[in-house]
Amino acid sequence: MQDDKQTDGFNMVLASTVHDMKNSLGMLGESIKVILNQIDPQQMDKKTADSYGIVQYETSRVNNSLMQLLALYKLENSQLPFSPNYYNIYDFLDEQRLIHSPLLDAKNIECNIDVDEDIEGVFDDCLLATVLENIIGNAIRYTKSKICISCTQAEQLVIEVADDGPGYPEQMIQLAGSYIKGINQSTGSTGLGLFFAQKIAEMHKHKDRRGKIKLSNGGPMGGGRFQILLP
Fold first, then answer.
1. What residues make up the domain containing 203?
2. Under 8 Å CB-to-CB from 149, ≥6 apart: which residues?
3. Phi first, then psi: what are they for 212, rounded to 5°?
4. Please, which residues have CB within 8 angstroms of residue 29's CB and are 6 or more apart in sequence?
């Protein structure tokens, strides 16, 4: 019983610390925006613009990881809100692209959306946005010059992020369903993003079907391809 109380206490401290760090990062990001808004875009040299894109990306990446940790903590304790609703897919995906536009521009990466503008899907937009923010960020990190975000809808909704980079390591593809085993301190890979994506996909279910994710190489862009399939 004492061990259970200590574990609960540690979990609460962990969740509180993650939440506090997330707030600090949010304030940091907003402060950087305020500073840069004082600079005339016409007078901002390329190095400054590129640095801003990188700072925004790294801040967003750490913030996203903290959000995932906090969400997984809440999921483990049955406290994670899940509110699926109908959303227009094109509008939703375009919003995710806009979030990354400073870094896309800084790295001169083309990001296209290939989606029928009439498609709608049922999902939790906040949780799915967190998944895609991480996946698109990784695509920007590894792609050569192009990213394509697409979606199809038949028996299930399939959202795909593909790039023209070197693709996913084969050992990561082989970890299907066990992405937390992808921790690699030498490469900095934690497996957290894919583990989180898998958990969020599985929360979406219809009758006897649950959502899932798939990784592959090749695809329409010749590089890595991430797919999240929602029933």
1. 85-230
2. 93, 96, 97, 111, 112, 113, 114, 115, 136, 159, 160, 161
3. -155, 170
4. 56, 59, 60, 63
CA atoms of 213 and 196, how far apart (whole Å) = 10
Q: Which of 76, 97, 117 is the last residue of a domain?
A: 76
Shared-domain flag, residues 123 and 210: yes
Tokens of 6: 């200590």
How much is the pTM?
0.79
The verdict on 8 and 114 lying in the same domain is no
- The pLDDT tens digits for 78-118 are 888 899 999 999 999 999 999 888 788 878 899 999 999 88
